[in-house]
Amino acid sequence: MNKEQTSKNSGKTAIVTGLLSILGTALVAWIGILPQMQKKNKSEIKELTEHVGILLKQNENKCRISGTILQSDGNPLNEVTIFAARADDEAGPDVEGSFIFENMIPETYYNFVILDKLKDTTYRILIDPKDKNVKTDEFILSYTYQIKK
Fold it and tell me: At CA 109, angle to CA 66 and CA 54, rounded to 5?
C-alpha cells in the first residue's frame, strides 16, 4: 500500500470513527432520557385517567331542576317556553306552570331564557343553585335542584 492509499484509508477511518462516536453519544443520551420520558408518559396517563374519573363522577351525579313559573299575581304562566344553557331540551310549563329539566349538573349556575309567546318577549335570568326563586315584575320563578340517584 502506498502513502496516498494509507492516508485515504486513515481519513475514512477517522470519519467512520467520528460518526460512530456521535451515534454512540446520541444512543447513550437517548437511553438516559428514555426512563424520564416513560415517567412523563405515566404521569400524563395518570392525569388523564383522573380527569376521566372526574367526568364520569359528574355524569353519575346528574340532577333535575324543577319548578314553577307564575305571573307576578300568582297565576300560572304557561304560555312560555324555558330554555336552559347547556341543556339538551327545552321546558314548556304545563297548565300549572310546572317545568322540569333532566340531566343537569348539580351546583351549577344556568342561564335560563324565557320566551313569552303572548307578549313576544324574551327574558334572560341566571339560576343560582343556592337560591330557590327569582322574582321580576313579570313573573316568579321557583325551582329546586334534585340529585338523581
Answer: 100
